């Protein structure tokens, strides 16, 4: 029993000791604290801002581009009607360049300007052309006009552009577009890009003289263009000793030609035609039927694929003067026009999904580039009248030794075309294509 009591006493003592420890009677081993993190070393000069890296300087936001007055180019072409074979490639060219210029112009003062090309259809009609250009001048308030597929249409627009003092660049050939035929004075506000009918007539005269021809018949369409071809033909042929023994007009849309009997009875040794398609192609059919043995020459109004497509058999073998655009690949590499011609061909065929180029689209190309170059020279802050005058002055004074599709231009105050007759070359239709036909092959 005593032993049992002693055991109970020992247990009681142990229990008390444990209770004392739990109550803090013994110093417990502390849970070790995590070591303090080493403080990041302070900069040697705590008050100085950290030095910026060069890359951080480049991330500064660029200054916002200054926006100036939008520029407007008014464009009028014969997109429909009898002149559409010329006007459609001109319209296509305008659309192509408008797409290329969608980022606008940065002027010499660094100011950005949007460029809008406003395209209207003259419908091959002088009255419609005049109405279109009036709208562009007065309502759209364009800075410059590129207007006039056809000579008659251009002449209808000339007085309106002149009165409003808006620079106008025509895509038609008559000399009277840029020079008053009565006074001989250059029209101050009017320019043009196509080679002239006088240039074409000189090539024709040289070719006929080489053939030994002394008499010709002259058939021309009843239009400003046709009348201008006759006037220039009379002058060039007379100088070359060639007589026009019969001449007559036909309408651009004619398909029958009663003039053939007079051609047969006239005794002429060759026929010269002053027209554009479709009439220029249709008259070839009649000439091949009635006078198949007579040489027939055309002018530079047919330098497009439509002339061939409308009457391929009748036009085969036809010689004519045309711009170098149609034979660009045949030109020597040092020809100053060749790079321009090849670029236009590449750009145009890509934009139109393979449509062939024509010299008429080239006339639009040259004219629009003049307008764009002139606008690019302007500083911001000018009034509309000041911009129009500055564009006119730029074209007159700065288009020098300027290679385009129509030749190398040298505009002067006295000559608002600035081309020699060598802006044209001689070609012929062979196997349904225009091929180079230089004088040494005549």
What does this structure look like?
- By secondary structure, the chain is α/β, with parallel strands linked by helices.
- The protein folds into 2 domains: 71-196 and 334-423, Rossmann fold (3-Layer(aba) Sandwich), CATH 3.40.50.2300; 198-329 and 427-436, Rossmann fold (3-Layer(aba) Sandwich).
- It contains 14 helices and 16 strands.
- The protein has a 5-stranded parallel β-sheet with strand order 4-1-5-6-7, with helices on both faces. A 4-stranded parallel β-sheet has the order 9-8-10-11, sandwiched between helices. Strands 12-15-16 form a 3-stranded antiparallel β-sheet.
- The longest helix has 21 residues, at 2-22.
- The radius of gyration is 40 Å and the shape is globular.
- It starts with a helix and ends in a 6-residue tail after the last strand.
Fourth-tier CATH superfamily name of the largest domain: Response regulator
Instruction: Give average pLDDT, whole number.
Output: 89
CATH hierarchy: architecture of the largest domain: 3-Layer(aba) Sandwich
Tell me, what's the shape? globular
- Give the strand tally: 16
Order of SSEs: HHEHEEEHEHEEHEHEHEHEHHEHHHEEEE
Please estimate the helix content. Answer: 25-40%
The secondary structure category is alpha/beta
Main sheet, how many strands, which sense, barrel? 5 strands, parallel
Gyration radius, rounded = 40 Å
Tally of individual helices = 14
Q: Which strand order does the major sheet show?
A: 4-1-5-6-7
Distance between the termini: 154 Å
- The top-level CATH class of the largest domain is Alpha Beta
CATH topology tier name of the largest domain: Rossmann fold
* Count of distinct structural domains: 2
The percentage of residues in β strands lies in 15-25%
The stretches of 5 or more residues where confidence is low (pLDDT under 50) are 1-59
């Amino acid at each position: 029993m005593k032993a049992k009591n002693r055991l109970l006493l020992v247990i009681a003592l142990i229990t008390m000791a444990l209770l004392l420890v739990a109550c803090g009677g013994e110093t417990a081993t502390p849970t070790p604290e995590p070591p303090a993190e080493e403080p990041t070393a302070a900069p040697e000069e705590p008050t100085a801002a950290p030095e910026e890296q060069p890359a951080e300087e480049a991330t500064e936001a660029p200054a916002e581009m200054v926006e100036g007055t939008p520029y407007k180019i008014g464009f009028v072409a014969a997109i429909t009607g009898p002149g559409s074979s010329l006007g459609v490639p001109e319209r296509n060219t305008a659309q192509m360049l408008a797409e290329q210029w969608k980022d606008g112009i940065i002027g010499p003062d660094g100011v950005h300007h949007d460029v809008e090309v406003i395209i209207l259809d003259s419908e091959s009609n002088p009255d419609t052309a005049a109405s279109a250009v009036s709208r562009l001048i007065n309502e759209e308030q364009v800075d410059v006009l590129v207007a006039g597929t056809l000579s008659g249409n251009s002449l209808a627009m000339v007085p309106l552009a002149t009165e409003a003092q808006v620079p106008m660049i025509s895509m038609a050939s008559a000399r009277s577009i840029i020079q008053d035929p009565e006074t001989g004075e250059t029209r101050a506000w009017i320019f043009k890009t196509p080679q002239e009918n006088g240039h074409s007539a000189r090539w024709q005269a040289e070719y006929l003289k080489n053939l030994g021809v002394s008499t010709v018949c002259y058939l021309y369409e009843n239009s400003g263009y046709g009348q201008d071809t006759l006037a220039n033909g009379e002058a060039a042929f007379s100088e070359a000793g060639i007589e026009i023994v019969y001449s007559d007009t036909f309408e651009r849309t004619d398909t029958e030609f009663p003039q053939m009997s007079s051609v047969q009875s006239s005794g002429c040794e060759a026929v010269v035609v002053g027209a554009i398609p479709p009439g220029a192609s249709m008259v070839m059919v009649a000439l091949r039927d009635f006078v198949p043995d007579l040489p027939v020459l055309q002018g530079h109004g047919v330098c497009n694929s439509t002339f061939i497509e409308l009457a391929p058999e009748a036009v085969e073998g036809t010689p004519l003067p045309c711009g170098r655009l149609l034979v660009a690949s045949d030109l020597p590499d040092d020809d100053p026009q060749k790079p321009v011609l090849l670029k236009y061909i590449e750009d145009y065929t890509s934009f139109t999904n393979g449509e062939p180029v024509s010299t008429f689209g080239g006339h639009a190309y040259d004219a629009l580039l003049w307008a764009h170059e002139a606008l690019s020279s302007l500083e911001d802050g000018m009034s509309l009248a000041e911009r129009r005058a500055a564009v006119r002055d730029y074209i007159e004074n700065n288009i020098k030794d300027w290679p385009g599709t129509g030749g190398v231009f040298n505009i002067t105050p006295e000559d608002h075309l600035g081309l020699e007759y060598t802006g044209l070359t001689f070609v012929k239709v062979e196997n349904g294509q225009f091929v180079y036909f230089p004088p040494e092959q005549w």
